[in-house]
């Protein structure tokens, strides 16, 4: 059994102003404690416990966690805010009817219950596992959003089924015209179009430009956060559908490795100036991260494969072709959707940049130990011609 760790972000249900102000006050006290700790020498600081803060009304377990968090931040000179946090011994999750509550002693010797607001069905399932002792509690952090909403961040660890054995893989190609394309091996593909997202990006860019000219910087930040939330929601929806797609056909998911793509891929100034086409604005990694943790819960295997030449190679034989916009054209005139072709290559990858039959005389890739070839990379056209003229 594998173990999965999640953090549930749960708003407090109908939190009154008195409790909200008390959270605010105690957070300020906790921040002051953290800043006072920074005045001690590092060696002395590590020896401190809550006994040194008996005069503080906050519970000892909360202060001990603050000391641990402060010691972990070795390069911080001043804390702007240190949220209240406690380990799993300092609180518990309970249920009364349909309402979930957090029970904890924020003050010394005083316990209280605060109800939680649970929107997601998956959160309810996880909280029920906690109450039934089928999942392990982690830390609890009480924090406030910029909108003034107080949240409980509950860390949960649970056992999940091992990934199911699969014989085939679904390749997932990520891009801008299509946010994601998932293709079955030599079969149809499922497309998640990026046109709506491009329109949103351009609209937000125009609005931000006007606000910047008017020097409304707070409004600019607010719009940036809203744009980020919209993209996060879209990635959540797509990742959920990707995992379901893999479950329906009992296959695994393969992503192309896109780490350091912003450093390795070049963009023109005109492209970077357009928010819809600027690759720096697109959350490729977030989509993969969301898909991975959802796949772990569902028992769907996920792995990454090298990205070079997956968009330029013909999925039928591995020959380098031409890509023009949304279309890929093979050396023999074969045409297909470029993103679908790339997802086929990603799904068929087996040690090279894509899967090869090696039966075609014009194959662009040969065995990894062939003379003149670089491991895991296609040969140049000159080397390919040499392979073509060699006897069978």
TrEMBL record:
Biased composition (Polar residues): 376-392
Residue ranges of the region described as Disordered: 371-392
Residues of the signal peptide: none
Cas12f1-like TNB domain mapped to chain residues: 284-346
Origin superkingdom: Bacteria
Keyword DNA-binding: yes
DNA-binding listed as a keyword: yes
Name by which UniProt lists this protein: Transposase
InterPro entries: Cas12f1-like_TNB
Keywords: DNA-binding
């Amino acid at each position: 059994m594998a173990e999965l760790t999640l953090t549930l972000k749960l708003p407090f249900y109908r939190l009154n102003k008195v409790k909200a102000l008390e959270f605010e006050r105690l957070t300020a006290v906790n921040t002051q404690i953290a800043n006072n700790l920074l005045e001690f020498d590092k060696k002395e600081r590590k020896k401190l416990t809550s006994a040194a803060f008996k005069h503080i009304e906050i519970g000892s377990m909360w202060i001990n966690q603050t000391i641990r968090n402060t010691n972990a931040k070795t390069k911080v000179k001043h804390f702007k805010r240190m949220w209240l946090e406690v380990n799993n011994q300092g609180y518990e999750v309970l249920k009364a009817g349909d309402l979930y509550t957090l029970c904890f002693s924020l003050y010394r010797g005083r316990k209280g219950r605060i109800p939680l607001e649970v929107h997601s069905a998956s959160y309810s399932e996880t909280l029920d596992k906690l109450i039934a002792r089928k999942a392990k509690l982690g830390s609890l952090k009480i924090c406030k959003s910029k909108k003034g909403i107080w949240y409980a961040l509950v860390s949960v660890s649970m056992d999940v089924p091992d990934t199911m054995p699969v014989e085939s893989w679904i390749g997932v190609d990520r891009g801008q015209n299509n946010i994601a394309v998932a293709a079955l091996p030599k079969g149809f593909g499922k497309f998640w179009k990026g046109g709506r997202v491009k329109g949103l990006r351009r609209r937000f860019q125009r609005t931000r430009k006007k606000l910047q000219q008017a020097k409304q910087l707070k409004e600019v930040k607010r719009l940036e956060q809203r744009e980020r939330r919209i993209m996060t929601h879209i990635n959540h929806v797509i990742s959920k559908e990707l995992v379901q797609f893999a479950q329906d056909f009992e296959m695994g998911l393969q992503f192309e490795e896109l780490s350091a793509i912003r450093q390795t891929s070049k963009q023109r100034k005109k492209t970077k100036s357009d928010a819809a086409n600027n690759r720096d604005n697109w959350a490729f990694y977030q989509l993969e991260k969301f898909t991975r943790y959802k796949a772990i819960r569902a028992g769907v295997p996920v792995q990454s494969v090298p990205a070079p030449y997956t968009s330029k190679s013909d999925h039928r034989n591995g020959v380098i072709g031409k890509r023009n916009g949304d279309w890929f054209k093979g050396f023999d005139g074969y045409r297909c959707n470029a993103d679908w072709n790339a997802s086929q290559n990603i799904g068929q990858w087996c040690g090279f940049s894509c899967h090869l039959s090696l039966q075609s005389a014009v194959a662009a890739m040969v065995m990894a130990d062939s003379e003149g070839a670089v491991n895991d990379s296609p040969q140049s056209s000159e080397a390919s011609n040499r392979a073509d003229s060699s006897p069978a």
